[in-house]
Amino acid sequence: MDALQLSPIVAGAWRLASWDWTPQQRLAWIEGLAQRGLTSFDHADIYGGYSVEGLFGEALALRPGLRDQLQLVSKCGIQLVSPARPGNAIKHYDTSAAHVTASVEQSLRALRTDRLDLLLIHRPDHLMDADELAACFERLRRDGKVLHFGASNFTPPQFELLHSRIALATNQVECSLLHLDALDDGTFDQAQRLRCRPMIWSPLAGGRLYSEDSPAAHRVRWVLGEISARLGCTPTTLALAWLLRHPARPWPLIGSRRLEAADEALAATRLDLSRQDWYRLWSASTGREVA
Questions:
Q1: Which residues, at least 6 apart from 253, have a Cβ–Cβ distance to it below 8 Å?
Q2: Average pLDDT of the residues in 272-278
Q3: Which residues contact 26 (CB under 8 A, 6 or more apart)?
Q4: Which of 221, 278, 211, 204 is nearest to 247 (CA)?
Q5: 15 close to 271: Cβ distance less than 8 angstroms
Q6: What is the pLDDT of residues 86-121, one digit of tens each?
Q7: CB within 8 A of 44, min separation 6: which ones?
Q8: How far is CA 59 from the centre of its chain?
Q9: Which residues does the annotation mark as catalytic?
Q10: Complete DSSP assignment for 196-237
């Protein structure tokens, strides 16, 4: 199996339902991102109350040939209390083979595709049977329904367990200049050791980077402004370049309806950030120098 290939920046689709777009507007967004080189789209079965994959698939059906230019990522394993899932009396996790298989089949129907490029387990499940799940993944791969597998929000030991049963391609975790856990809890160290590039959700701290009223946010904004002015880029480009500078080679996700946001994000892939500027931003976030 070839190594997982994603675009340098991945488009997060989780807000798509809230944009209230027509199918033609959704298609224009997909095409506009793809034309810029942002060809990977991150989904989950639960997004938009189980509606986003269907909205995306409806748009994609307007130009079926576009599918082969894209990489479609989905996640499963969270069960919501929702009219779309009337049997759920409580929010819970489910990584049983039956649920994962059913979720994949539903995602394929909704996205109007015959395969997922990547499937992630959305959250760690205390009742996950690693052998059962690995066998399920093998069946899905053998049937051509999923090409690569990974996890999302797994700790290094949780990732190690499943990876010991079947090779995983990525761990999608939170990281930003206001959330540094992945640098310190072994997540990025494990990613380098396994040569397993992480995906990063909320790389701009869900907008808190520019709105949060905290000492750390104020320090980070000031240093972002100073360095970005010197380098001739925007603070957003710089914040993403800070993540991309890490040798774990992460794939950040952005979730904006504005195509200009993709240009700003992709500019980060061309920014040569020095080691000293990287540590200046780290120090701004932590409020201290290295020891």
A1: 9, 10, 11, 12, 42, 172, 199, 200, 201, 202, 203
A2: 97
A3: 16, 55, 56, 58, 59
A4: 278
A5: no
A6: 999 999 999 999 999 999 999 999 999 999 999 999
A7: 14, 52, 74, 75, 76, 78, 122
A8: 21
A9: 47
A10: -PPEEE-TTGGGHHHH--SHHHHHHHHHHHHHHHHHTS-HHH
Rounded to two decimals, the pTM is 0.97
Contact 49, 80 (CB under 8 A): yes
The predicted structure's pLDDT at residue 1: 63
> Which pLDDT tens digit goes with each residue over 132-152?
999 999 999 999 999 999 999
Which ranges in 95-234 belong to alpha helices (H)?
A: 97-111, 130-142, 156-163, 181-184, 187-194, 208-211, 215-231
Q: What is the rounded CA–CA span in Å between residue 222 and residue 99?
A: 47
The fold of the 10-169 domain, in CATH, is: TIM Barrel (3.20.20)
Tokens of 290: 């290295």
Q: Is the separation of the CB atoms in 76 and 44 below 8 Å?
A: yes
Q: Look-up: residue for tokens 């952005």?
A: 254
Confidence of residue 280 (pLDDT cuts 50, 70, 90): very high
Domain ranges of the chain: 10-169
Return the pLDDT at 2.
Answer: 84
Q: If you average pLDDT over residues 15-32, what whole number do you get?
A: 98
